[in-house]
Amino acid sequence: MVSKDDDNRKQEDMAPTKEDSLPSGRIARTARFGKLVGGQGVRWAGTRAANMTRDEEEAQRKMEARALSLAEELVEQLGKMRGAAMKIGQVLSTIDFEAIPEGERENFKAKLASLRDAAPSVPFPKVRKVIEQDLDGKISDLFAEFNEEAFAAASIGQVHRAKTHEGDDIVVKVQYPGVAEAVETDLRNMNLLLPLLKRLAPGLDGKALAAELRERIGEELDYELEAQNQRRVERSFRDHPFVKIPKVYTELSGRRVLVSEYVEGAGFEEVKKMSEAERDKYGEIIFRFFMHLLHRERFCSGDPHPGNYLRCPDGKVCFLDFGLMRTISEKTLKAEHALAASVLARDAEGVKAQLGSLGYLPEPEGFDPQMLLDQMLVAGDWAFEPGHRRITPEYVFELAEVGSSPRSPYFKQMRQMTLPPEALLARRMEALVFSVLGELRAGADWNALGTEYWGGAEPTTELGRIDAEWRSTARR
């Protein structure tokens, strides 16, 4: 399921630490949240009081320093807790925190995003207990072989290689012992974080965000639901010419254990070293996969992390991890398509109307239609401007600054907008895919590719024509 290089790297990174045991007790986890909120609240109030005697420039500098201190402590505490705390941090990595000093924002978001790779593995005896309880049998009876060394670990569980009695190579994802209780506590405590998050992002609709996170992260704990998601996606792409989804072994899976087909492939770092043509093809497949899910299946992946796909020896791309998913309503998807059409038509009134209907404008009368259109054109330049474009990390950073930099003409407007809960995972998906394309330095006419999905245009690339042929003949 991962490349050999990735196996070795992850094993080195996962040496046992003092954090191997989850702080799962309700009181202990609540205390960590309370310490963070209480301590920062006092310091924030102190800074505000002291600023009354400072000039405007000095006061702004002190508030930015306080915001940066809060951001750093937030990352530190979430990283120590694993479970929902780490997952909350990952999802928050797509939100613009305007109060953080401009030069530190992207670094802060990168630290939040990296929390998924910060979890150490749990000792095997604890893992064995989870597997045998969940599947009601001994490991030796369930599997012909089982590697006790985990080769991947994340916020909620870790992964082991194994073999079925029929000789199939498989991977076994196992939930950490006690993580369900820890997640439940974290989700209840999330309201404690909202005042801090509002200080970092004044325009954030904290209650709506919290409700969406509770639902999505709560679902991710249920591996039976993840297996259902994976089977749904596998059916959608069965026998696809350039996309592969691992088969689920339902009979060996449970609520806390998920068994899938093992897939050998090159990891992201290996792909980045390949030729430009190979990277372009890889990038186009990634783009097409997530656009197909969203625009043709109304199914959104909230975790398109580069560690969740592999380049197979036959050139296909294998996609992994279907825990953080959301079905988008038909009404919302139609409005999203209408919004894209309005942007492409340079219809400012249409853009404002669709943003309002989708819930981005809490008080629509306060927004200028032309400014909204201009913002969309700049922020979505890579997707809305026709012609070949090679996406670079520098370009990704440049577009990220559109809404997060006080120097941006759209900064004030962005702070007044809200992020609708239903759009949270879709915007996260788009942001992460864009970032991945930047890391690949992938090139394509992204506007032409995108309009196949949100505008019904004919394919303009060889992969597009191959995909269209497969869809016309695939059995559903």
Describe the structure.
- With 476 residues, this protein is α+β, with helices and mostly antiparallel strands.
- Among the domains are: 17-117 and 182-219, no CATH class; 328-473, no CATH class.
- 57% of the residues lie in helices and 9% in strands.
- Strands 1, 2, 3, 4 and 6 form a five-stranded antiparallel sheet that branches. The protein has a three-stranded mixed sheet with strand order 5-9-8, covered by helices on one side. A two-stranded antiparallel sheet has the order 7-10.
- The radius of gyration is 23 Å and the shape is globular.
- The two termini are 27 Å apart.
How many β strands by DSSP? 12
Helix fraction by DSSP (H/I, runs of at least 4): 55-70%
Major sheet: 5 strands, antiparallel
> What kind of oligomer do you see?
single chain
Tertiary shape:
globular
Summed over residues and divided by their number, the pLDDT gives a mean of 82
Rg calc: 23 Å
Residues in β-strands, percent: 5-15%
Poorly predicted runs of 5 or more residues: 2-24
Structural class: alpha+beta
Individual helix count:
21
Measured distance between first and last alpha carbons: 27 Å
Give a topology summary.
Layout: H1 4-13, H2 26-51, H3 56-81, H4 83-92, H5 105-113, H6 124-135, H7 139-142, E1 145-146, E2 152-153, E3 157-163, E4 169-175, H8 179-200, H9 206-220, H10 223-236, E5 243-244, E6 257-261, H11 268-272, H12 276-297, E7 299-301, E8 309-311, E9 317-319, E10 325-327, H13 330-344, H14 348-358, H15 369-379, H16 381-384, E11 389-390, H17 393-404, H18 411-416, H19 424-440, E12 443-444, H20 446-454, H21 462-473
Helix pairs in contact: 2-3, 2-8, 3-4, 8-9, 12-19, 12-20, 13-14, 14-15, 17-19
